[in-house]
Amino acid sequence: MCSWPMGTIDTFYELATRKLKADSETVTLFTKHPGTVGAFREARLRAYLKDHVGRRFHVGQGFISFHTTRGEDISDSSSLQIDCLVYDPLDRPVLFETADFACVDPSATAAAIEVKSTLSIYRKRTSAGSEDFPFSDEKGRYRWSGSLVDALNNVAAAISVMEAAGRPRREYFAGILAYEGPNLNLFQQALESGELLKQLEIMDLDQLPDCVCVLGQEWWSFEAYPWNDVDPEVDAINYDPENSFWIRVAETDDGTPLRFFTSYLSGVLDRWRGGTSEDSMGLRSGGGVLPELHNVRFHLANRRNTSQPDPATLEVSRLLKAVKRQG
Question: Which of 13, 21, 63, 206 could cross-link to 169 by cystine, CB 3.0-4.6 Å?
Answer without folding.
Answer: 206
